[in-house]
Amino acid sequence: MIRGILFDKDGTLVDFFSLWLQAALAVTPAFLEENRIQPDKDMTDYVLRAMGVEDGKVDPRGALAYKSYQEIAADICQALEKKGITLDPARAQEQLERLFDENVTGKNVSYTQVTDIKKMLRALKEKGICVGLATADTMRSAKSCLKKLGTYQEFDYVGADDGVKRPKPEADMFLEFQHKFNLKPEEIAVVGDTYNDVVFARNNGGIAIGVLSGVSSEEDFRGEADYILDSVKDLPGLLERMD
What we know:
HAD family hydrolase, HAD-like_sf, 8 strands
């Protein structure tokens, strides 16, 4: 029986493409300029590919889809090294965090909900299910998003990149959520739109639920996730069938 659910954020609760794809397209040339690298089309496209973005499409197993800023910075620095350009990974991480946060937390930024998040979370909590967030986003950005949506208070737990916890699929957020509510691993479902979310669930003994509302297709989840849903809209029906 599921007693706790850890939701991914982008691509699972809110639309990924209108937020993060557009942010990546804006941040990349700004990042290059800060590092005194000419942000021409070839170089911009090269760095975007290092993030897993090509021709306006996001690789579901690419960096932008699921990695932390530290990991994205490492991928970009490694790619630039091949062109004879050396950047400090720590500085690159700071730049990416700042530029992305400025882009996705601005006053004019709007978030498209996959479903009525508040209504869904309240319905789950009425069933006695603890609800949490486990995202690769920074804590500042995650909280900003949830507060704009009016859903921050609905979450029993918010796990994000705070500079201390290791990113998914490492166990940190899963274990923190598990211990906070005295749950067994098999009582926790992880709902997300990437293979990384599936690994996060599987590695920690949870139930993996893949959703097709983000960067992944059904083929990406087949044989990997325990359940595959079109979106979190279908989660209540799945829980009823499981009960």
